[in-house]
Amino acid sequence: MDDRQRYDRATAALEPPFAILDLAALQANAADLVRRAGGKPIRVASKSIRSRAVLERVLSMDGFRGIMAFTLPEALWLVEQGFTDVLVAYPTTDRAALAALTADARAAREITLTIDSAEHLDHLAGIGLTHDLRLCLDVDAGFVAFGGKFRAGALRSPVRHPDEAADLAAEIAKRPGFRLVGVLAYEAQIAGVGDAVPGGGAWNRVVRVMKSQSARELIVRRGRIVNAVRAYADLEFVNGGGTGSVEVTVREKAITEVAAGSGLFHPRLFDNYRGFSGRPAALFALPVVRRPSPDCVTVLGGGYIASGSPGPDRLPQPYLPAGLRFSGDEGAGEVQTPLLGQAAQDLSLGDRVWFRHAKSGELCERFDTLHVVDGDEVVDRVPTYRGEGKTFL
To answer: Which residues have CB under 8 Å from 185's CB, separation 6+?
Structure first.
């Protein structure tokens, strides 16, 4: 029985649109991430999962430890639900959430905030600190070449060099109410850029050279930064990487843990990596609702666009049955999506078309439930953040 038959049989009683989580695929992807991490723990990036039950399931597996959250309100809620060791990976200016954090001794023990400037410290101090705040220093891990004329990587922290990191660590050490416990440096240009894009040819070769040079530069610079910071703080962790760079990042002695989340669901953008492969674990089904022509069907909804620079690679992928493609004039639409191709001729009204999201993060913002499929059965139904009434971002 192929995957389409399995999924159709398992969900025969459900009315699309709905989302599923293939349990065997999730477990296989998790095991492969652990293998790639080579014994270093993986901090689970919650923005890619957005389901409390799935986070609990993954963290119960060997090799995973801690959560990388995306907002402080999310982190506070997760701690209320019993989670521990939550790193908020993006700076926060949320005064209400900060007041709640400083008033809650357990939350203050379990949550670490990310900062990258003295301005952040000033903002945090203005809240009024009842309990010491755990802090993580975010460092720019981007790749710069040709005298600064070329840059690859996310525009995050202004802290790039060891002396800058040391100066900020020293500033933190001088201020009461703060404790620096971690360093974060995310190499988006390695972890988030595919180097095996179909038809990519010369582009793939350029990306591979950039990644290799960036990794060599970063292993030296990140090590020096960590050493400089350790002169002022007793660090508990140094976090780096993402799904696309796990096996590269863990080679660095300075790294104590890596982050990953998307690799658990394996959305379609992660098909384009030479160094690893995965199994699609999270999918959504849309119903065929009309036929404009013999080789075209229209499904309901579908405009579930991924974040990032707009382009065709941010569209979801018509996955099953194989051979369907978007109309160049319409793409994935808000309320309808035409799909073209010979495979459309074999579809009838009410049939499902199975899609993969381009990225992991936004999928669970569209659905309140993940139907967990094992073999050809739905064995569980778990809420997403949205299903629990939580929309943090």
So the answer is: 138, 139, 140, 141, 218, 222, 225, 238, 239, 240
Six-digit token pair at 378?
A: 């739905």
Strand bridging mode 282-293 / 296-300: antiparallel
Q: Are 314 and 308 in contact (CB under 8 A)?
A: yes
Q: Could you give the 3-state DSSP secondary structure of residue 3?
A: helix
CB 239 within 8 A of CB 225: no
Domains, the chain, ordered by start: 23-262 (3.20.20.10), 282-384 (2.40.37.20)
Contact, 299 vs 349, CB < 8 A? no
The predicted model gives 216-222 an average pLDDT of 96
The SS3 assignment for 37 reads helix
Task: Report which secondary-structure segment, H or E, holds 366.
Answer: helix 363-366
Query: Is residue 128 scored above 90 in pLDDT?
Result: no
Distance of alpha carbon 377 from alpha carbon 130, whole angstroms: 50
Strand, helix or coil at 208?
helix
pTM listed for this prediction: 0.95
Q: How many CA atoms lie within 13 A of 315 on its CB side?
A: 18
Computed over every residue of the chain, the mean pLDDT equals 96
Determine if residue 201 is left, alpha or beta; phi over 0 gives left, psi from -120 to 50 gives alpha, anything else beta.
left
Residues 6+ apart with CB under 8 A from 314: 305, 306, 307, 308, 358, 359
